[in-house]
Amino acid sequence: MLMSHSRIGNGEARRTRAWLRIACAGAALALLAACDKKPAPAPRAAIEVTVMTVTQRDTPVEYEFTAQTQSSREVEIRARVDGFLEKRVYTEGSLVKAGQTLFLMDTKPFEATLQSARGELSQQMARLSVAKANLARVVPLVAQNALSQKDLDDATGSDKEAEAAVIAARGQVRTAELNLSYTTIKSPLTGLSSFARQQDGSYVTASATGLLTYVYQLDPMWVNFSISENEILSYRDQEAKGLIKFPPNRDFEVAVILADGTVFPARGKIDFTNPAFNTQTGTFLVRASLPNPKGTLRPGQFVRARVYGAVRLHAILVPQRAVLQGSKSHFVWVVDKDSKARQRVVEVGEWHGDDWFINEGLQPGERIVVDGAIRVVADTPLKITDAPPAAPASAPAAAAAAPAEPQRQGGETQSLARRSSDDAVTH
């Protein structure tokens, strides 16, 4: 009986210990499972951005080209007679007036030649007087048959010969007077003088060493730049498609930007486009004429020519900071109706101040991210603030502002050469 009770007690103790082990194991497993669970990710914070609505508008555009100034009238000052250069009477590099004396040559040989010519003229005039007096005597005698017809013919011939000799002598006098006047060499125009090519005392000849200096007219000043054939064809195509509009009669305005970035105060007009295509450079020459009354512009300066007058029709402009560069193309972030961003590939055109023309990829009414675009991730919530509206572009405003970045060359203005190129094919 006692053994029976002892066995029963031992069995219950074993069952109790087994249940305890099972309970501990279950608790341990539950603890391990709880340790393996990761905390749920916190929701992403909304990215703060500014957004603008895409619109279309006609936008005046201007384009820049590397250019060089040229005197509108460059004159060689040359000796017109052979002789010794006696004196230079102008200051090299100074502004000279039209009719101002620049050089003096030795006049003595020319004065002597003039005196001889005048003496010859006097002799011939004396012979003419004798011939006329003789003719006057012969005429009535022939009428009375006192002299033969041959005598009359001889007297008449002598008279005509004397008249011709007088004319020739007068020509010699005039030639001598001109040669004497050529010894005083004057400027034919008002302009900037160059250095003297011949020094005082040099013997100069009109054919070989007659170049003495140059005079450059400064007002107006020409500005030359070139247009490539590809650009002309491209913008002709855009004009045909109605994307670009040019001013009537290709009446473009040109401003000049100097080497230090300052804008020359006066504007000019394009007055010539070369109809001949340059096969070496693949370009057409375009020339603008600008007033330069103070002589600020000098011949040979390298400047930038900014041409106004073209209008891009129904253009889409977005700020440059809204356009990002991907691995293969440019793109923008387009905001959908749920205020989430979607990446959109776009085709960009030329720069326009701080904006960029978008040729393809955007439609009016769409919203794009402007500020904060670099932080945007696809399908991330956005905290949106509307961007301030852009001021309407205008040619005068664009002209007054200095360019913050160099503009792309290429430009519609170059289609101004279309007129001349059309002439070459069929300013």
CATH topology of the largest domain: Elongation Factor Tu (Ef-tu), domain 3
Write down the overall mean pLDDT: 83
Q: Give the strand line-up of the largest sheet.
A: 2-9-13-12-11-14
Tell me, what's the shape? Answer: rod-shaped
Q: Main beta sheet: strand number and arrangement?
A: 6 strands, antiparallel, barrel
Number of strands: 20
| Low-pLDDT residue intervals, each spanning 5 or more residues | 1-8, 393-427
Cα Rg: 47 Å
Q: What count of helical segments does DSSP give?
A: 6
Total domain count: 3
Q: What is the assembly state of the chains in this entry?
A: single chain
Mind telling me the CATH superfamily name of the largest domain?
Answer: Efflux pump adaptor protein, beta barrel domain
Residue share in helix: 25-40%
**N- to C-terminal distance:** 133 Å
Which architecture of the largest domain would the CATH scheme give at its second level?
Beta Barrel
Order of helices and strands: HEEEEEHHEEEEHEEEEEEEEEEEHH
Structural class: alpha+beta
CATH class of the largest domain: Mainly Beta
Beta fraction: 25-35%
